[in-house]
Structure formats: C-alpha cells, structure tokens
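Quick one, probably user error.
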C-alpha cells in the first residue's frame, strides 16, 4: 500500500465515536441531573428517612453520572491525542482533566451511594446515633462539595489549555477554542466566587458552561475536518520521505 494511503486509511480512528460519547454523556447528564432531588425534613431523623426514600433514584442518577465521566475521559483523551500529546500544554491538559475526573467520581460516590448507606446505618439508632448519622451526612456533604469544586477547576483548566491550542488554528476549530476559553473562565469564576457554600446559581452556571463546551468539543470531533487534514499532511510528509530516501 502507498505510504500516504496507509496513513489516510488509518485516518484518526475513534474521532467520531469520541465526539458522540461526549455529546451523549452531556445529554444524559442534563436529563438525569433534572431527576436528582435533595433530602428534606425538619429534624435529623426526618432527613435520614428522606435520604433513604430517595436511595434508588440517587443511585441511578449517580450511576449514570459516573458512566458519563468515563465517557468524557474517553472523549477528551481522544481530543488531546488529535491535538498532539507531544505538545506540553496538550499533555498537561489531559493529565489535569483525568485527575479532575477522579475527583468528580469521588464526589458522585459520596453523594449517590455513601450518603444513603450512612443514612440507612443510623436511621434506626438511638437519638444520639441519629444525631451522629446526621452529622456524618453533613460531613459527607462538605467533602463532596470540595471534591466537585476540585474536579470543576481541574476540568476548566484543561479546557482552557486545549482551547489555547485550538486558537492557533483557523475557522471552526478557532471558534471552538474561543468557546473553550469562555467556558473555562466562567467555571473558574463561579467556583472561586462561591466561597465555602455553593448556591444553585453558581452550580447552574458551571453546568451550563460545561455543557456548552462539551457539545462544542463533541462537534469538533464529529466534524473531523481539521484532524483529517492533519492526517493527510502527515501522510504526504511520509510519502515524500520515502521518495527521497
């Protein structure tokens, strides 16, 4: 097979599937976040009972959230590969993003599984035990918030790193880079301006900014034109090297 044809036939495998993975995960995340509900009640016992009632739904919602994070990791690892992992900024972005994914999975496990297990463990205890269980739930809430904030910050920094690389291109890719810069900046601003407690406005701002960037990045991968052009250039270079060897 001709060297150029070999490179082109290999193309950039996984680019389309990676884009679809990011887009699908984004849509599912939006749908299932809307199904999530928080505990209610005026006493520690009522709050523990409320958490238990929501247990099945929270496990489903957060199970989908974990699957979505894994899909994002696959998609953005592909994007980073296409942007060239030999570039320090691109590699740093991927490393940062994957650590952010670990933090987000930790927050998801705390919120969707551990909090329910704690509630079930203490709901039938003595009044002192119920109070202890409630205090543990409060601690879990603080821990998951901090993990989520860490994950959001790391993922925002990664999007900014990749967006900066995309700004070197032209046309559609450059536009996606601009979206990445704006999205990452908005997420960082929302996290650092929220203080110890995040209100719903800050959380919604982060989720919307992330959704816009995710869909933009997905469209870039699905479109593939910039990456395919890069592959053809690499193939042409390889062909020239063979001719002049």
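Nope, works fine. Designed sequence:
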């Amino acid at each position: 097979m001709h060297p150029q044809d070999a490179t082109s036939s290999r193309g950039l495998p996984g680019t389309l599937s990676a884009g679809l993975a990011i887009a699908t995960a984004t849509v599912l995340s939006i749908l299932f976040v809307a199904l999530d509900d928080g505990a209610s009640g005026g006493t520690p016992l009522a709050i523990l009972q409320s958490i238990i009632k929501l247990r099945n739904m929270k496990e489903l919602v957060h199970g989908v959230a974990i699957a979505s994070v894994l899909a994002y990791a696959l998609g953005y690892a592909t994007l980073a590969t296409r942007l060239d992992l030999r570039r320090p900024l691109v590699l740093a972005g991927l490393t940062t993003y994957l650590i952010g994914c670990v933090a987000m999975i930790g927050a998801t496990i705390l919120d969707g599984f551990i909090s329910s297990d704690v509630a079930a463990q203490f709901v039938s205890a003595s009044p002192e035990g119920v109070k202890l269980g409630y205090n543990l739930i409060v601690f879990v809430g603080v821990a998951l918030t901090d993990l989520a904030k860490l994950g959001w910050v790391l993922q925002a920094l990664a999007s900014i790193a990749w967006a900066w690389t995309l700004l070197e291109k032209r046309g559609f890719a450059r536009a996606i880079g601009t979206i990445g810069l704006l999205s990452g900046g908005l997420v960082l601003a929302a996290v650092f301006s929220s203080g110890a407690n995040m209100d719903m406005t800050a959380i919604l701002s982060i989720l919307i900014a992330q959704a816009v960037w995710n869909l933009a990045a997905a469209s870039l991968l699905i479109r593939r034109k910039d990456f395919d052009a890069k592959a053809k250039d690499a193939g042409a270079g390889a062909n020239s090297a063979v001719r002049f060897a």
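The chain has a mean pLDDT of 86.
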